[in-house]
Amino acid sequence: MNTNFKQMNISKEILKAVESLGFTTMTQIQEKVAPLALEGRNILGASSTGSGKTLAYLMPILERTSWEEQNASALILAPSRELALQIKKEYDTLGRYKKLSAVAVFGKQPFSDQVKAMKNRHQAICGTPGRVLDHLRRGTLDPAAIRVLVIDEVDELLDRGFQDEVLAIVKELKAVKQTLMFSATISDRVKNVASAMALSYDIVEAETAQELNIAELLYPVEDRDKFKTLLSLIYRRKPASMILFVNTKDECDTLAQKLADQNIDTLKIHGGMLQDERLKAMERFKNKEVPYLVATDVAARGIDISDLEISLSYDFPVEKESFVHRKGRTGRNFKEGLAIYFVTDRDHRKMAEVEGYVGYTFTLQEPLPMRTTAEEKDSYREFQKTLRQHRPQKKVIHQDITKLYLNGGKQKKIRPGDIAGTLHAIEGIEPEDIGIIQVLDAGSYVDILHGKGEIALKGLSERKIKGKTLRVEKAKK
């Protein structure tokens, strides 16, 4: 894996966005998938979580997409709203310099809000199968415009019972020229479904979980001693970042509260929480504002968290696939990772099922100690204080891009062309300096590229737009 992104046949805008994320060298899945995808080939790809497959398929899609497209030409299906949102975010980040953007659609969000978002210029839809099918059937998503279909996490979509919805969507998309499918593993079941979605495809296999740099430790523990054992592990190891997986939302609430009662900084995320609560918790955890996250398997797939030190299964996973998916939260981008699993007496049957699934036998470690000394606790308190004092600054991506907010939108009859026309009249602003313009009902947003944000801010503040004086400021979001 030594191919540099600069060796790829991609435009300077995409390359600049990739470099802004700190990536220089391609992973194996990126090396194998991107050239084939650029040729327009159908692909069934297998690669472990954390190996960079999202970037592998987004680069070719963005490369062959133009800002002139009014509606989505790419549809990306994902098994969870979290993954759909993450893919949308990565699409927007990589497409920023080409003025390309995506819309995310998923359940438990107002349908009308998604329709409004889709009325703005966009080039991709990232969504869960049920909601995407709903949009197709209501006529709010144009199937004739979709040229590229991506099915991410095929195995997970099947496990969650989405096969019928996915196949129904495929039948609606008559204009698709390319289908890209990805799965953690390629089973006969996955191949059968892939064959139903594409007449022919290239199979591309890259890194497996065993090849990634992740250590596995399985510790026997009595049910009644699990929390004491966890505290001992935290006080002794002092992990700077850790996900603690549990099997139910009630256990998630309980464990998060028990840790909070011990004054250990912790967040939680499970399916019973409101969408905004989950997204805020995940964002705070990704930004390393809080070191520990208690989660159900809703967070086990598709959430990209860099530098996660430990993935700890406080509850041994019920589904054998979750063993691998939880493990894949750590050791991302080929950094060292550690996956720890607590195993009670009643977990041995499930452990045997997982052994059959992964193809090797586990070795149980010696039990962890449960008692901790006052010195160990005091040492941990100092460690946590240091973490709080040295929370990293949020990484700024695209530092040469400024997003401006204008307090006028569709209600004031403002159109994207009105904003672009006013910007063109500002001395020092060239057409290529104007990025994505998003006009909402009550306000508008515009990206100003190439470090010319202050010039645009001053110029717009001194001018009327369509005869109206609007307040212009740097966007808060």
UniProtKB/TrEMBL annotation:
<comment type="similarity">
    <text>Belongs to the DEAD box helicase family.</text>
</comment>
<dbReference type="Pfam" id="PF00270">
    <property type="entry name" value="DEAD"/>
</dbReference>
<dbReference type="GO" id="GO:0005524">
    <property type="term" value="F:ATP binding"/>
</dbReference>
<dbReference type="GO" id="GO:0003724">
    <property type="term" value="F:RNA helicase activity"/>
</dbReference>
<dbReference type="InterPro" id="IPR005580">
    <property type="entry name" value="DbpA/CsdA_RNA-bd_dom"/>
</dbReference>
<dbReference type="InterPro" id="IPR027417">
    <property type="entry name" value="P-loop_NTPase"/>
</dbReference>
<protein>
    <submittedName>
        <fullName>DEAD/DEAH box helicase</fullName>
    </submittedName>
</protein>
<feature type="domain" description="Helicase C-terminal">
    <location>
        <begin position="213"/>
        <end position="376"/>
    </location>
</feature>
<keyword id="KW-0378">Hydrolase</keyword>
<keyword id="KW-0547">Nucleotide-binding</keyword>
<dbReference type="InterPro" id="IPR014014">
    <property type="entry name" value="RNA_helicase_DEAD_Q_motif"/>
</dbReference>
<dbReference type="GO" id="GO:0016787">
    <property type="term" value="F:hydrolase activity"/>
</dbReference>
<dbReference type="InterPro" id="IPR014001">
    <property type="entry name" value="Helicase_ATP-bd"/>
</dbReference>
<dbReference type="GO" id="GO:0005829">
    <property type="term" value="C:cytosol"/>
</dbReference>
<dbReference type="Pfam" id="PF03880">
    <property type="entry name" value="DbpA"/>
</dbReference>
<feature type="short sequence motif" description="Q motif">
    <location>
        <begin position="3"/>
        <end position="31"/>
    </location>
</feature>
<keyword id="KW-0067">ATP-binding</keyword>
<dbReference type="Pfam" id="PF00271">
    <property type="entry name" value="Helicase_C"/>
</dbReference>
<feature type="domain" description="DEAD-box RNA helicase Q">
    <location>
        <begin position="3"/>
        <end position="31"/>
    </location>
</feature>
<keyword id="KW-0347">Helicase</keyword>
<dbReference type="InterPro" id="IPR044742">
    <property type="entry name" value="DEAD/DEAH_RhlB"/>
</dbReference>
<dbReference type="InterPro" id="IPR001650">
    <property type="entry name" value="Helicase_C-like"/>
</dbReference>
<dbReference type="GO" id="GO:0003676">
    <property type="term" value="F:nucleic acid binding"/>
</dbReference>
<dbReference type="InterPro" id="IPR050079">
    <property type="entry name" value="DEAD_box_RNA_helicase"/>
</dbReference>
<dbReference type="InterPro" id="IPR012677">
    <property type="entry name" value="Nucleotide-bd_a/b_plait_sf"/>
</dbReference>
<dbReference type="InterPro" id="IPR011545">
    <property type="entry name" value="DEAD/DEAH_box_helicase_dom"/>
</dbReference>
<feature type="domain" description="Helicase ATP-binding">
    <location>
        <begin position="34"/>
        <end position="204"/>
    </location>
</feature>
